[in-house]
Amino acid sequence: MLRGCSCPHRGRMVRIASALGLIIFSVALLILSLISYVSIKKDFVLGAPRYGPNGGPRMYMFHTGFRERPPRKPDLSSQLALKYLDPDFTPLANSLSEDLQNSSKWKYNSSAFRQLRTEISQHIDIPNNFTLTRNSVKVGQLMHFDYSSHKYVYSIGENFRSLLPNVSPILNKHYNVCAVVGNSGILTGSRCGTQIEKYDFVFRCNFAPTEIFKKDVGRRTNMTTFNPSILEKYYNNLLTVQDRNNFFLSLKKLDGAVLWIPAFFFHTSATVTRTLVDFFVEHRGQLKVQLAWPGNIMQYINNYWKTKQLSPKRLSTGILMYTLASSMCDQIHLYGFWPFGWDPNTGKELPYHYYDRKGTKFTTKWQESHQLPAEFKLLYKMHTDGVLKLSLSHCA
Ligand SMILES: *[C@@H]1O[C@H](CO)[C@@H](O)[C@H](O)[C@H]1NC(C)=O
Ligand SMILES: *[C@@H]1O[C@H](CO)[C@@H](O)[C@H](O)[C@H]1NC(C)=O
Ligand SMILES: *[C@@H]1O[C@H](CO)[C@@H](O)[C@H](O)[C@H]1NC(C)=O
Ligand SMILES: *[C@@H]1O[C@H](CO)[C@@H](O)[C@H](O)[C@H]1NC(C)=O
């Protein structure tokens, strides 16, 4: 009887309440697991758990921005934390600590370098593959993209063709000692500017700003890469007069230098490439920067690095510049190549790039496709072999 009147009702209430509870519980669980998924993903961005300067798990600086921490005494424990990043790195960690203490111990091995240059030239004809030339393309020709599905195409127009050089700007160009400057935050506070200024030829990556960081990175630029998406990110797609003026002034500072524009790596650059082409055509004669537009060359470059057991989905711009430099320079020194979030000299946290102090610009996609620690390990091995010089310590 009791049942008859109140129980069904109460039973339903209880059922509704427990169903609601279950829903709330599952939503909470979902949120929690999402949060932990994201943080696990962040911890594993470098392919291995990341550790802080003292070996403890490292807080990631995605949303918090770059937190200032009290300076730590430079100690070996921070340098040796490297070994936690990748067990294979352990044998190199000691030699790295020694290097940081006395970088003048490094010795160049020119025969080893010449051998490497020959190996690279067996995979890629760098002077000729450095840029497309006017005679190597036809108007109406459909270009594909190295890193995109074959269905995407870019039709070569008269304007684009008119911007191509007649001959490769690096044909028969030889320099003695070159610097390839990467963009790692390790350059912040390095005071390497004066040293970098002294090289015969300075390569830079991704149109990185130099003027306000000249103490650390120098100003001299003989060649820089320019991914067309930079227009989108830093110049608002050239939509206002102000944006166009800013871009013009940045290019003006590169008079005489080579602007190396990989327009056929990603189909996502196709639209900005048209904007860029129009801009250069409109300013023909006003700019003295030399344009170079590589075609689909990544397969050749990848094939070479594969022989060194390096085959990420995407090689970094830095190692790509090194590859190009190998045909032009007799000796190559690298600055700003350091893919970890802490400074091996001071143990302090580092911004990802020297020019964005706010924190890292890592995006998930980017982390998945690059293998910077693996690249670094290989470059460091080449450093100890005397093939190249990696500069990691402060210069002054
Ligand atoms: C660094 O190493 C070089 C060559 O081995 C040596 O001449 C120099 O004295 C060392 N400097 C210091 C500070 O240990
Ligand atoms: C230079 O490198 C070659 C290998 O390419 C090696 O045989 C030689 O011993 C190295 N020389 C020195 C001085 O380390
Ligand atoms: C690379 O260079 C070779 C030899 O000069 C040439 O035949 C080929 O078309 C070039 N490819 C690209 C994509 O530049
Ligand atoms: C490299 O660039 C500097 C200016 O940034 C210039 O003075 C120098 O002549 C250039 N060197 C070469 C080899 O083009």
Automatic annotation (TrEMBL):
The chain crosses the membrane at residues 20-40. This is ST8 alpha-N-acetyl-neuraminide alpha-2,8-sialyltransferase 3. Keywords: Disulfide bond, Glycoprotein, Glycosyltransferase, Golgi apparatus, Membrane, Signal-anchor, Transferase, Transmembrane, Transmembrane helix. Belongs to the glycosyltransferase 29 family. GO terms for biological process: muscle cell cellular homeostasis; muscle organ development; N-glycan processing; oligosaccharide metabolic process. It is a single-pass type II membrane protein. Signal peptide: none annotated. GO terms for cellular component: Golgi membrane. One of its GO terms (molecular function) is alpha-N-acetylneuraminate alpha-2,8-sialyltransferase activity. InterPro entries: Glyco_trans_29, Glycosyltr_29_Sialyltrsf, GT29-like_sf, Sialyl_trans. Disulfide bonds join C178-C329. It is found in: Golgi apparatus membrane.
